[in-house]
Amino acid sequence: MKKVKGELFKDRKGEIRGRVRSNNGNIIATTEGYTRKGSAENALKLLGVNKKDTKDLRKK
Prior knowledge:
Elements: E1 5-10, E2 16-21, E3 27-30, H1 37-46, E4 54-56
Parallel strand pairs: 1-4
Antiparallel strand pairs: 1-2, 2-3
């Protein structure tokens, strides 16, 4: 069984959200918006995504 991948991104409001992608690339879950990166990472952890499997897509 392959692992799901997580992504962190900024929404239109500037909040940080996380999303979970399945092995075929479809989005299967999205978190609510957070002001802190750690909070979004914790939400992804609750959805079963390890921190090492999370890609940060936010512009730096």
